[in-house]
Amino acid sequence: QVHLQESGPGLLRPSETLSLTCSVSGDSMNTHYWTWVRQPPGKGLEWIGYIYYLGDTKYNPSLRGRVNISIDRPRRQFSLRLTSVTTSDTAVYFCAREDSGGLTPWGQGVLVTVSS
Amino acid sequence: QSVLTQPPSVSAAPGQKVTISCSGSTSNIGYNFVSWYQQIPGTAPKLLIYENNKRPAGIPDRFAGSTSDTSATLDITGLQTGDEAHYFCEAWDYTLNSGVFGGGTRLTVL
Question: Going by fewer Cβ within 10 Å, which terminus of chain B is more open, N or C?
């Protein structure tokens, strides 16, 4: 059974860099797209970006220039970096695997709060 | 404002059927597959439908997806109180070169 788990700091100051890691178990990461999605409190889902297992990336154009997704297949992890955060980046961040066009499974999510 | 448009809320009685719509454009739903997700508050979304109308293992056939032109629909029949959740549609948008979600629909089972 495939399991994903997000980890990283839960509190950031404005202008700092958000760094999250998604640890994957039950999958060798030798295929699939590995995706980040976020959800501001009380709001809908926002697609952040994905990384293909070979390293190709796609990002939400609204975040382009601030976002980077990387993968470490031997460690079975992929990571999200978002620079120059503001209070608008406060959200629950989820990692997920894309399988046949759908995102499954998902991690449980991690709340990141940006506050001065 | 979400690229895919969903009604904010729908409701129906237990045992009844509800339809949730997702309206897009030729650059997303009209071009690519649609997925649907169920999110119970406080938990991660769960995949219900992929490739417009396919169900992952373990998803009952009470959940059915379809598409027509630039719109998608999720039908839920035999409503149960456990179906109360938010439902989101999602597709790839080739103009934005990005995944896009609908704003979500809150289902209330009266």
Answer: N
Contact list in B for residue A50 (CB cut-off 8 A) is 99
Question: Residue A31 gets which letter from DSSP?
Answer: S
- Cβ pair A102, B49 in contact under 8 A: yes
Alpha carbon distance B88, A108 (integer Å): 17
Is B103 in contact with A109 (Cβ distance < 8 A)?
Answer: no
In angstroms, rounded to a whole number, what is the distance separating the alpha carbons of residues A85 and A66? 9
Task: Measure the CA–CA gap between B76 and B61, rounded to whole angstroms.
Answer: 9
Preceding omega of A105 cis (within 30 degrees of 0): yes
Say what the pLDDT of residue A3 is: 97
- Segment B11-27 shows an average pLDDT of 97
pLDDT of residue A92: 98
Nearest residue to B89 via CA among B35, B48, B23, B10: B35
Greatest C-alpha distance within chain B: 40
